[in-house]
Amino acid sequence: MSTEIAARPAEQVATVTVGLGPVSFEDVVAVARHDARVELSRESLEEVRRTRTVIEDLADDVEPHYGVSTGFGALATRHIPTDLRAQLQRSLVRSHAAGSGAEVEREVVRALMLLRLSTLATGRTGVREEVATTYAALLNAGITPVVHEYGSLGCSGDLAPLAHCALALMGEGTVRDGSGHLRDAADALTAAGIAPVALREKEGLALINGTDGMLGMLVLAITDLRMLLTTADITAAMSVEALLGTDAVFAADLQALRPHPGQAASAANLRAVLEGSPIMESHRGPECTRVQDAYSLRCAPQVAGGARDTVDHAAVVAGRELAAAVDNPVVTLDGRVESNGNFHGAPVAYVLDFLAIVAADLASMSERRTDRFLDVSRNHGLHAFLADDPGVDSGHMIAQYTQAAIVSEMKRLAAPASVDSIPSSAMQEDHVSMGWSGARKLRRAVDGLTRVLAIELLTAARGIDLRAPLEPAAATGAVLAALREVAPGPGRDRFLAPEIESAVELVATGAAVRAAESVTGPLN
């Protein structure tokens, strides 16, 4: 399974101003996915210059200061003489750039870099102005350090991923240039007219001591999940419609009896998407003897609503983390240099795990709706497996297998990473968050949910087509029409994988949501 959703549509590229306050979700997405330029505010540069003097005043202090005149982690007991302190910072970055495994996606690295730059811009890290401006220059030149899958324990910051970025700032290591080509960092910086930075006291530590990788992936996942939750309401509505279910259970007064805001929002979407459906009207009369639908249809707003509320909780946590200045030691507002534990990734790690759980459950319910279409005992008059000639044709039989395989994988990905901890650094760092690992598996879960919803959309659309001459609702009809532009309707068996990928793109780009909203107006 890919770790990336299909490419999203191009958006207007803006300039993101990085200053004393937090960057927004929109800022992260603009820089990570759409190559928005970054600029440092005048106020932030003034604060960076002011707090750098605090660090420089400590350089000759006989009293040891962590990260300035000492070693790191379990080696913090060694006092480092003045003439070795530049080497100390270089050695820190080089030794910590120890990642391994597959290359991490460009959008993740750019999000990580923006968030580290945002912390540098607060002035709380004590770096020189040159460090912050050069970091911004890397982003603006489209230079992306090669970061590897493994290396972060989610404590003391995302050390290895951030160290690979710091290494590029020094003109060392491997990067991808603005065209995506692999190059030595020194060559890429020279081509972009960027002078590498010679690190000084504390600067290497300031560049690697943050939760920026896991936070960047959290922000991107929340952005994707919000779109996918709306998509899930649309595909659920299409399934209810094509399976001759009832929309009576989505009534606002029934939903209000259990006042979860996410549930109310999902039910409102279902009502809006199904409004005016001739298929729904065809079986409202007294001749319909069905008392209530299966849970996967009837309880769609309860499950998707719970997922919505969980995403909102995760967004609160992410917002707080975006407002944080994570470093150790940190320069306080009144000029003290203090050690702290704010680099611990636990708050972010918990919600990353939580989101993997709700993504898996939402996908599980979607798969159950798809399965109902394929069983003649439950699909209310449709062909077995929605096949043109069952027995000769297999229809969507194996599309559901693909869904089931993805859902099974997502259930494994829902096992929390944050309950694990492997002590490190000679037991100095004896409890870690594993937040980076939680973020990596969440990206796979988001991709999986995208694919599961796409297969439900493809299957429900075929079910709606097979209800002809009955017409669908205007909104579901608009989604069906958008799908039919890239994937044909019912017929004899054909190569199905390309049609699934076309549906995946329709979901991942938000085109399915936009099609429905062309009728309903903005959905929740």
Task: Walk me through this protein's architecture.
Its EC number is 4.3.1.3. The protein has 524 residues and is mainly alpha-helical. The chain has two domains: 15-210, Fumarase C, Chain B, domain 1; 218-520, Fumarase C, Chain A, domain 2 (Up-down Bundle). Helices cover 54% and strands 5% of the residues. It has 20 helices and nine strands. It has a three-stranded antiparallel beta sheet. Helix 3 crosses helix 6, helix 9 (212-242) packs across helix 11 (261-274) and helix 9 packs antiparallel against helix 14 (300-322). It is elongated. The relative contact order is 0.13. Residues 1-10 have low confidence and may be disordered.
Question: Percent of residues in helical segments?
Answer: 40-55%
Number of folding domains? 2
Which fold name fills CATH's third level, the topology of the largest domain?
Fumarase C, Chain A, domain 2
User: What's the CATH C level of the largest domain?
Assistant: Mainly Alpha
Give the overall shape: elongated
Give a count of the beta strands, DSSP E runs of length 2 or more: 9
| Low-pLDDT stretches | 1-10
Strand content: 5-15%
Rg over CA atoms, rounded to whole Å, is: 26 Å
What class would the helix/strand composition place it in? mainly alpha
Number of helices: 20
What would you give as the CATH superfamily of the largest domain?
A: Fumarase/aspartase (Central domain)
EC number: 4.3.1.3
Enzyme class: lyase
Organism: Oryzihumus leptocrescens
GO molecular function: histidine ammonia-lyase activity
